[in-house]
Amino acid sequence: MEDEPRRANPELANRRRDVLVKAGYAEILEKGIPGTTLDSVVARAKSSKGGALYYFPTKEDLLYAVLEWLLRQLHRTLDEVVEAQSSARGKLVAELEVLFHSAEVNRKLYLVLFDFVAWGSRLPRFKSLLLPSSKLVIVAMRRLWSWACENSSSGGLALGTPRRPSAPWWTDIACNG
Q1: Is residue 90 part of a domain?
Q2: Which domain covers residue 154, as residue numbers?
Q3: Helices marked H in the chain — which ranges?
Q4: Rg from Cα positions in the chain
Q5: Domain-located, residue 170
Q6: What is the DSSP letter of 46?
Q7: CA-to-CA distance for 63 and 24, rounded, in angstroms?
Q8: What is the Cα 32 distance to its own chain's centre?
């Protein structure tokens, strides 16, 4: 009986890759992108350099994977909180709480995201990930604006002051009336 070649276990490969990505996130959080190296990620993940290079031949590949993972987590969280709400207002409030709750609660997320925005804005590969996410924030802000327009005539804005707010630059929505 001839020995079969060793087959890769995709589940194990995904777990190893995820450990490296999460270690990369932790390194970026602690040291920033410039201070993060493949070696520091390997050490944190308790992995081998060869294993890391198999999944991420360059630091840029690792950083891209970390950004993808981070944005996936953010989108998943937003989807979950929106699905838990029944009213449009509840969905909007839930989205805004996740995105803008407080700087302290979301401190880690913002530290890493802003680091990526500053560093990755020069690289087309990273822009393709960052632009849809910034659009997501603008969409949430537009939804809030739309709700504000709908509720301004009934005195729902500014502690009951009935007025129409002026449209900020990020809206394509004009309050009628």
Answers
A1: yes
A2: 10-160
A3: 10-35, 38-45, 49-55, 59-83, 88-100, 107-120, 124-152
A4: 22
A5: no
A6: T
A7: 7
A8: 16
Report pLDDT for 27.
Answer: 94
Give the pLDDT confidence of 90-107 residue by residue, as tens digits: 888 888 787 776 556 677
Phi and psi at residue 162, to the nearest 5°:
-80, 100
Structure tokens given for 141: 């802000």
Residue 137 counted as domain residue: yes
C-alpha 56/C-alpha 59 separation (Å) is: 7
- Encoded amino acid at 177, one letter: G
The verdict on residue 177 lying in a domain is no
Three-state SS at 114: helix
- 176's tokens: 């009628």
**Smallest Cα–Cα separation from 108: which of 143, 70, 56, 141?**
70
What are 55's two structure tokens? 């999944």
Whether residue 78 contacts residue 33, with contact meaning beta carbons closer than 8 Å, is answered with: no
Q: Which residues contact 147 (CB under 8 A, 6 or more apart)?
A: 88, 89, 92
- Residue 142 scores a pLDDT above 80: no
CATH of the domain at 128: 1.10.357.10
- Higher-pLDDT residue of 162, 101: 101
Total domains in the fold of the chain: 1
Within 13 A of 116's CA, how many CA atoms are on the CB side?
31
Closest CA to 138 of 110, 102, 173, 170: 170
